[in-house]
Amino acid sequence: VRGSVNETWQPDGVDFFIIQGLANLGEKKMIVFVFLLLGYIIILGGNSMIIFVATTDPKLTSPMYFFLYNLSLVDMVYTTTTIPNMLSSFLSDVTTISVPGCFTQMFVFIQFAVTGRAILTVMAYDRYMAICNPLRYSAVMTRPVQLLLVGGAWVFGALCTLPASVLAWQRPYCGPNVIRHAWCDPSSLRRLVCGNTSVDNIVSITFALVALLTTGVLILTSYILIGVSISRMGVAQRLKAFTTCTAHLTVVSISYTAASFVYISYRVRMIVSVLYSALTPFLNPMIYSLKNKELKDSIRRTLSSVDPSEDIKTISV
Question: Locate the G-protein coupled receptors family 1 profile domain: which residues (predicted)?
Answer without folding.
Answer: 46-288
